Structures
1.
Amino acid sequence: MDMGAGLGVSGAAGMPLVLGTTKLLGVIGDPIAHSLSPVMHNRAIAALGADFVYVAFPIAAADLDVAIAGFRACGVVGFSVTIPHKRSIMPLLTAVADEAAALGAVNTVWWDGAINGWRGTNTDVAGLMGPLQSLRSRWTGEVATVLGCGGAARAAIAACQKLGFDRVRLVGRNEAQRSAIQTDFLPPNPLACTIDGFGWDAIAAALDGAALVVNATPVGMHPHGDDSPLAPELWSHPQAGAIAYDLIYNPRPTQFLKDAQGAGLTAIDGLEMLAGQGAAALSIWLGQPAPLAVMRQALIDHLGA
Ligand code: NAP
């Protein structure tokens, strides 16, 4: 007897029903148990009634090539890529989208029969940009301040470049990392933009007149929810009506966003980027628009906020 008969492909509690025909999606990383991607993707898959399921694969750096070959053998349709594989996956792909190559990071991969190989792209930048585009259509002539010099900061800089910001002020405690980013975003990189580097001792100057302030450090993340990378009095420096964007999604809101809102800024939290990059990836794998609102709600429900 077919236990799935009459249930379509939507199982219990907003989960997809897994059948013999079900196609596999997932996320690779190390560690990966903390990932919220299965929660949002499976809720979206169930909402669409699509015959897919999305699981987390813990894959150590040394096993990456074997795992990807195994994915091909098992018929995996596509997968998300997180730390530490976003750069090291690139040589294992047959084609990498220009933007992902310019950024040096891939977060979304899918099998393309037409090239008989894996294709990779980066949806983090689109995920980051989405809520900014819905708040304002024109950023020309404006300055953005980005706190931190890791992978998320690079995605934020790329988003600012694509939105048309005049320049980015990059704040980091490691001068070598700051300089490396400045160099990587020079022409002929298609994401080239003007980046001024600041140490934390010059944070007030870095914030002066900014239209957007992005926290791309982990400062303020659970369980250190009382921390913020910015002292409350610094929020007088960005321009009136500026946007504060914390890439952290737990807690909601962070202390950074509470202080920014207290000073009259508009707040965006990291859940928007997480849901946005996920929706962009799912739409590639399924070949149809992904339900962004469903994915956002799945994250909110899971985080209990
Ligand atoms: P990362 O590569 O480790 O970079 C973190 C950056 O923050 C580094 O430049 C680091 O400097 C700096 N930093 C760390 N602790 C600091 C402190 N106490 N004071 C000042 N700077 C500090 O991490 P990432 O992948 O870029 O992620 C950064 C944040 O973005 C995390 O909170 C992550 O959860 C979030 N994120 C969110 C999404 C989303 O979808 N919402 C996606 C990606 C990342 P050092 O190198 O000197 O330590």
2.
Amino acid sequence: MQPRERLIFPLDVPNKTEAERFISLLKDHVGLFKVGLELFVAEGPAFLQFLTETARVDYFLDLKFHDIPATVTSAQAKIMQGAKLATVHVDQGRKMLQAAVASLKNRVKVLGVTVLTHLGPDDLEALGIASRYAKDPSQLVLLRARLAQAAGCDGVVCAGMEARAVKAACGPEFLVVCPAIRPAWAAVPGDDQQRVMTPYEAIKAGADYIVVGRPIRLAADPVAAARKVVAEIEQGMRDRSSLA
Ligand code: C5P
């Protein structure tokens, strides 16, 4: 895998016009575009068709499904060719994860969302999560990664600082996708992410893919920012293999 292929750029923009602008700017500099709730709600499945048939780019459909097994199965069945990765929340339990995996079998890789990176110990405690997990979110991530793997998921979404432990627990083939990536050179105004890491650190810790949004999208020169991230990925890969 080329370093660039490990970079996922989220199309967190309000409409297709804005999305097209970033796709043409970044097409040769990132591996996958991620379609999340904002754009999907605005543009619907027609936008996914546009990605595959007109823009001819692969995408990660990040709708983070969180519902009963029957509903998730029906929704997943409509996910189109062209999607390489899709997400479901692990906290809806084994049956839902198994249903999600079965409905996408051999078409799309399914990732379990473990614990979103805007949540810290206080938030988890307030949500009723047992204090041994709330105090140490990495333990909750590991518990959920094991559950996702047992249910047949191809990998998980977690913070960079949890990547190494997930790889150690679930094995090298189990995909680790890390958002909340903050290069040392990028400041994000009013940042909502906690549990952050740089691209270099996350890759070195074992992430297969990193999701980098605002540090690229808000940069004066998004292409230059994407290139800098790819250079960090390359360095992280080098240092990771020299440690192996
Ligand atoms: O880099 P930035 O914070 O802008 O990236 C935001 C993107 O990362 C959003 O698309 C969000 O859905 C995604 N994300 C995620 N899982 C998290 C945190 C953020 O998929 N735990």
3.
Amino acid sequence: MSSRFSNVKLGPPIEVFALQKAYVDDNNENKVNLSIGAYRTSEGQPWVLPVVKKVEKALAADDLQNHEYLPVLGLEAFSQAATCMLLGADSPVIAQGRAIGIQTISGTGALRVAAEFLSRILHYDTFYYSKPTWENHRLLFINGGFKHAREYTYWDHIKRTINIERMIENLENAPENAVIILHACAHNPTGCDPTPEQWNMIADIIEKKRLFPLFDCAYQGFASGDLDKDAAAVRMFAARGLEFLCAQSFAKNFGLYNERVGNLVLVMNNTKDIVQIKSQLTLIVRGMYSNPPNHGARIVSTVLRNPDLYEEWKDHIGTMSSRIRDMRIGLQQRLQRLGTPGTWDHITQQIGMFSYTGLTERQVEHLLDQYHIYMLHSGRINMCGLNEKNLDYVAKAIHETVLLFPQKDKRCNC
Ligand code: LMR
């Protein structure tokens, strides 16, 4: 029988979720999941942060809580606290009323709302994303109405550092008003952030060429363990008087992955347009999902606004970021001890959740087929998937795989 749906083409799978499913379905007892970016304890388990559990219990017992709609732009107390966390409590931009935040459906929702605002309201049509970047940036901006997707060089795969010269050159050639997506900290997937000097160079070129910066801030506090340090680039842009947007996610730093807690921050030069801007954001959200969910944002808001809970949460961030650092050291030392061909210092030099290992696609395939170790085809691994129980297994598997399928370029295993 003919059907209206028979011409629908099969779309490509979303790699990270396809791998996650394949991992769950895999019955091999040695399997290791280094794919999706989610924190795991040293037992390999998801972690509900104790402070989150505490607030959830209090909310459940609070008879004043209900399930009424939130306003279209979400919980204002949450957005204010989140904006403050990003820009700093003593931020002149906040004091001058030049920053607003709206609650969104995690960082992804913030990016999608931002894209639609920039394309439909400001009429920007070109965006640049780093090569490589988080695989969703492109889709979000195309779906948000942008016409021209461009890459800027970010990674030097031989030196395994940022190729700042090429990046600046690419930005130099970008048209005015091109939106430049920047990772605020813990660049996904490379784990390599610009130095303060390089950030200044990036800000210079953005200012000179009248480009529009948009930060994706998914790892504040999670990268270095220090909330202020991880926000330094964003704050530097604010201090220089640049206007920008920033998408904040609370998935990783609060472990609230499925609660979709996010905030879109707009930093602008004056306050006179705020009412109009909010009215347009309201229409965008209303036409997309009407209003955001309450639960996760209520938790984050409660923690950020209570000094004791805030300190408790900062301890949790420290726990997570230091465990990741330990795993970096653990893997690098094992590979060095085994004498695995190639250099592995980058594993400890990179920061945040991921390591861009430089393993080739062939090696990644072999690690999956032979050892049931799951990672992105780019060689990106989630460091949190490692623990004392599987480190030896993973290091040995990488060692054997690199011996079996050597890199062509001896300087580099990418
Ligand atoms: C990741 O990069 O693995 C995470 O941010 C999950 C996702 O949505 O891609």
